[in-house]
């Protein structure tokens, strides 16, 4: 989203670059708010279910931006996507530590970062390729939104690994 959202708002939705930048500023402020909410609820609820809810928020936000017909939908995107990003980010570190312990955290973070990098490179490429093929970001953003929704399912199904008996 970071790579293509302002272009989509400007060229696809007709907002000025300044208006699109304001939406991105709101997204960033919502991200800070998400971190604050995580601080309040972090140890009170199941982290994987919060992460699943965040992925649904990402999906909903992306779809709102993709098919926005008014400013309220674009603002809702910024609040949902930013809030989910801020909330989910720190939870991922805590969830990895809860599931795999401190002794394996380095290896788990390393493996996780390899997967994250694939998404960070692949996501903008998917959006950009489909924008080039279709003339807009709708197909690419919809695919990415559905992938976020699928990610929600994976968090729901995730279970803490069992330690081998010795």
User: What's the N-to-C terminus distance?
Assistant: 46 Å
The ordered string of helix (H) and strand (E) elements is HHHHHH
**What structural class results from the helix and strand content?**
mainly alpha
According to CATH, the homologous superfamily is MFS general substrate transporter like domains
At the first level of CATH, what is the class?
Answer: Mainly Alpha
User: Please, what is the average pLDDT?
Assistant: 90
Range of helix content: over 70%
Describe the global form. Answer: globular
| CATH topology group | Growth Hormone, Chain: A
Number of strands: 0
| Unreliable sequence segments | none
How would you describe this protein?
The protein has helices at 5-12, 17-41, 47-66, 71-100, 105-134, 138-157. The N and C termini lie far apart (46 Å). The longest helix is centred in the middle third of the chain and has 30 residues, at 71-100. It is globular and about 55 Å long. It has 166 residues and is mainly alpha-helical.
